[in-house]
Queue: 4 jobs
Job 1
Amino acid sequence: MTKLFKSKIFYYFFMIIVGLDVFNSALGLNVKTDFAFNIFIKYFSLLICLAAFISFFIDLKINHGIFKTYIYLKSIIFPTFFLLYMAKEPILYGVHIFPAEKYLMFGFALVLGLVLLLLYNKYKIENQ
């Protein structure tokens, strides 16, 4: 297997984050939902997480592309979308239908995604 990152600490940190996200996404499939779009998002999220986790163990030329997809989609775009969606209700209607913990959860996920992006760009090794 080729070396993916300059730092082994970041390699294992990133692997643990992705592994926990795979576990969390798999547990999220058990939650009942009424909308087909929510079911699609859950399976798509699990697919992205599984692809990123498997990329740690299989030597492919597209490993960094899969990691970037995971970081941008799962760690930055999804939390941003849900934060904006949840902020719509109090701004437009003045009704707080989501608990404060949801805002903190997605805010923390967004900050973690941005930190992962910065560290990923710092420690990745590009193939010549």
Job 2
Amino acid sequence: MGASASKIKFRESLTSLISRDVSPEDAEFWDELWKIPSSADEVFELLTPDNARRLRDERFDNLATLFTQATAQLCQIVETPYTIYFDQALNCVRVLTRVLPFLLEKGDLGDGDLNV
């Protein structure tokens, strides 16, 4: 996948997270998200502050699932530390690094706190 193709695919995945409910059981979506080669610059460019806030405010269940899926992916990579998975681990960490500040800026999330 070329740089521009991966950027487009990552943007499409983010749009899906913001615009519709994505099931935690949608393994194809989540696996594909972590496999899209993305640099830190791309993650921060495409996952804008406005998009991160919209995800938090309008699709909190997707945000909770994003955290759960990223954490599960990282745990799986720790259990099977093959170099072919290292880019996926980087993608997980980059996405978490980008959205975590926007989750924390909200403060008390009420019932949402139980999901993250």
Job 3
Amino acid sequence: RLGEETLQIWGWPAGACAPYPDSWGGNDRWFQHICLVSDNLTAQVEAMAPDRLGVISSAPQTLPDWNPAAAGIQAFKFKDPDGHPLELLQFPADKGDPRWHQAQVPSGQPKGFDHSAISIANTESSLAFYRDVLGFALKGQGVNSGIEQDRMDGLPQTRVAITAIGPSAGAMGIEFLNYQSPP
């Protein structure tokens, strides 16, 4: 349990699954991550001792003002001790679900789970399934690119179309990552 969310992590019998390969990127179709939200991303990253974790991002990144859908969002991607990718976000006052801005004493600790992201091949076909068949609502869309995205993803010349969907406000959602570059 983290904040108001409960995440169940299931284990599989020994030998039933393969570990992440040594070399991979967010643009690989099998890629997925869980996103946590903090009210003090910098303090949380320092407390995690990123030198002891596998890091994806070169350092915490603040998304630029030219990108109005994401401007001011701070992000850092890293790996847990088993190599699973995680994302840590801090939303500015005008972004993110209202639950991330409820009055409370800032702690820097994760407040909850914002989304699970999955790399996809085609936004429209993914929306046709998740929205039209499963009933998820479209929450937002945008395109991230530039040096901040490169540093966040650990990839060169990154351009990624991001689509956020979810069951309702105040609930963990799904984020589609449609990498246009690198392929």
Job 4
Amino acid sequence: MSLTRRRFTQILASTLFLHHLPSFAQSVKFWASLTLPEAQNITRIVSAGAPADLLLLAVAPEKMVGFSSFDFARQALIPLPEHIRQFPRLGRLAGRASTLSLEGLMALHPDLVVDCGNTDETWISQARQVSEQTQIPWLLLNGKLEQSAEQLTTLGKTLGEEHRAAEQANLASRFVGEAQAFATSPAANLSFYAARGPRGLETGLQGSLHTEAAELLGLHNVAQIADRHGLTQVSMENLLRWQPDIILVQEAVTADFIRRDPLWQGVKTVAEQRILFLSGLPFGWLDVPPGINRLLGLRRLHAWLDPAINRQFKSDMQHYAQLFWHCPLSDADYQKLVAS
């Protein structure tokens, strides 16, 4: 049975526990199954996916039993407390794409599963099914970048980490607010293409989580399909017609191919070397995953476009590292992360 608005309201009335959480709004900001434990009784949390990994790393690393998607023990690119770096990678909970079985989930004896991303009927239905089968409460948070502060404060209240989450939310609000202000300026009058995949022909459509950071800054996404959001494949003919002002790339293999391929030279932006290559992190700046890591990517892209923000970007990134990674970021480490 499809999860209609009426059915969702019935579920909300009968099975959702919304103690100290924001009220349900038309755009779903969060969804919770079963009865959420009191904050003091939540000591073991399983992350459902990569966006939740980074959100929980920020708000409550002490309560995580591991990461779903990251093995930071093998990566020294970002500063992390050593005990967090040693967290195991457990696998993700993502419907048919899950790599953590229900038996494996139950063996971890979690008090709560936390997920962050899409809150449409498909994801709510998947979360509800797993929660009912395992009898483990599940909290699903809307993963939109502009709602980062709300994600942080909601999770902070749920887990009894209000003070830490409030500091993080303040920084998130500043980054997002200043980006939205920039979006109204003439400097934001640029079009972009976000290149993904080995040949650069995969991209995020306008309105998707994958391109939200650039769009929040007011940049125009050339890849648009009516009533569709998410990833899509495009052709070189599309790109030659679109002629974006800048190209955003996060993978070295993609950047190398675009720079070397003769067909790509027909895109004026490539010929003029207006390719913004963001690398250096063990995850993406603007995507991969579409989590709160994008706050840092949003700020870095903003710094590229705005000299005033560029002058303070190092201190902003060091502040972010202290709040979200719980470690200081030295000047040398900063240079390594932004060297690209």
